[in-house]
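Worked Example 4.2. Consider the chain below.
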Amino acid sequence: MRVIFAGTPEFAATALAQILAAGHTAPLVLTQPDRPAGRGMRLQASAVKQLALQHHIPVAQPLSLRLDGKYPDDAAAAHAAIAEAKADVMVVAAYGLILPQWTLSTPRLGCLNIHASLLPRWRGAAPIHRSIEAGDAQTGVVIMQMDAGLDTGEMLLTGVVDIAPDDTTASLHDRLADLGGALVVRALADAQAGKLQPVKQPEAGITYAHKIEKNEAAVDWQQSAATIARRVRAFNPFPAASAQLGADTIKLWRATVEASIHNAKPGTVLSADAHGVRVACGEGVLCVTELQRAGGKRLNAADFLHGFALTPGQCFEPHHTHKDT
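Applying the procedure from the previous section yields the following structure tokens:
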């Protein structure tokens, strides 16, 4: 089939690669404009754009698709490109722009979305992070027929994935990206054969995965060790859980939970050795096993402590923004 693909990050690029490998043609790719990235803050093409260029696929990078919005010229040019592509279907994965009705209805078979959660749980921008943060046992991918709502369309195919106790957003992302690519290829085959069977989303169990903000990174030691450990995993690799010790900001990359009872003030370092940095929490103890100083490398606890002295009794700064969950 002729498939317009709309997506931006690595999650989407994985799906585009599988669609092309399955023999479908992509007459057009839509992706976000190049953005500054890295230490030099140079403009960098998205993962999807890089893959599209490797395959000599035309790329459009509108700032908006709304003809009545802030960037009508961008939207009009995209409108023309989409119409000219004469696509059978559009596949959308982590694109980052809202699709207006004209976009949804232009391709013959409409728009299919690859969404990384078990809808209707975790509609919205950050379903992988939020599923880990909430302590969900499972998540997955839904291929959805898009409508004008926020992830409200009918479900076409579903795949389920167990969330392992040590899964981070990075590790879970990669498994879900592979699953999403495989499922959308199946959905395209079913669409081609007229075999798609749309199912309405349940009314019960709707939750929203709000966008991850940088200010969520700061650890609140009043929370339980279990809650903090989930947040450490959910915010790996972005924005990375962090704690303040005097003038030093320390990122926490890996941590385990100890159900120890203590009388220390939350945030107090109980011990620091090659096995980890044990910190008192509102309930239980967090044992941090991988850390990073500002400007430094991610290190296991043993290597980190060679260059940064942590002693029992020291206390990380309090932070009271988040309630326990």
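Residues 3-209 form a domain with the Rossmann fold fold (CATH 3.40.50.170). Residues 169-192 form the longest helix (24 residues). Compare this with Example 4.1 before moving on.
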